[in-house]
């Protein structure tokens, strides 16, 4: 992140982020301070750490809504910290914006595969940083669970107690594996799930199950969900992600052509 460009791309304050606590974790104190400054201006409560092991303790104590996590940390890499966060029950739902160096696509893909909510390349503008953080916080705060053990996201309602799925109010018949697969993706909305993670969660990662099995089940699941199947997004080289469908933009009706004027009658 270029400190020279931070704050010069637009006003990032006044977003009402004061209810959210953000932890900034990276090996560069100056970068951490610059990120913390602009997030604080946007209304977030921010703390910083440079050590990965200290970051784990801070997450347990402060319970941040979100972590701005750099790939490089002292004592523990950003990748290792992200993996630990996603493995532990008490930190599994913490939002993560993963920072990588520009032109490091393998790092971005690895971060997404490990469960980051979003990735951002350095250097970047303060405005983009705040917007990315705001989008993750908004997604985490979106009401997905309703009463009676039901998950409701967009047109899909999943009733965990009745083992029932509705799409636009209509029953959709799913197998037990398809139901568990959909439930896993909905519960982790907005987060990329690698094929290996889905194998472990849904199938228990038995030795006779391959990643191709995940692809085949997701293909059938999308087909059964109809247009709501578009909620399941394929992330190249990383896995799958469940996203809320955006409302389609209203199409502008084609302009009516003015009636052609009758040509002048030829003179005799």
Report what the structure shows.
This protein has a five-stranded parallel β-sheet, sandwiched between helices. It has a five-stranded antiparallel β-sheet with strand order 6-7-8-9-10, covered by helices on one side. The chain starts with 20 loop residues before the first strand and ends in a 26-residue tail after the last strand. It contains eight helices and twelve strands. Mean pLDDT is 78; it is low at 1-17, 249-257 and 262-268. Helices cover 35% and strands 19% of the residues. It has helices at 29-41, 52-62, 78-87, 105-113, 126-141, 176-187, 195-203, 211-225, and strands spanning 21-25, 45-49, 66-70, 95-101, 118-122, 145-146, 150-153, 156-159, 164-167, 170-172, 232-235, 239-242. By secondary structure, the chain is an alpha/beta fold.
What is the domain total for the residues?
2
Q: Give the overall average pLDDT.
A: 78
Order of helices and strands: EHEHEHEHEHEEEEEHHHEE
Strand content: 15-25%
CATH T-level fold name of the largest domain: Rossmann fold
- Sheet having the most strands: 5 strands, parallel
Helicity range? 25-40%
Give the strand order, joined by hyphens, for the main sheet: 2-1-3-4-5
Instruction: Report low-confidence residues grouped into runs of 5 or more.
Output: 1-17, 249-257, 262-268
User: CATH homologous superfamily of the largest domain - what is it?
Assistant: Response regulator
Question: Which CATH class of the largest domain is shown?
Answer: Alpha Beta
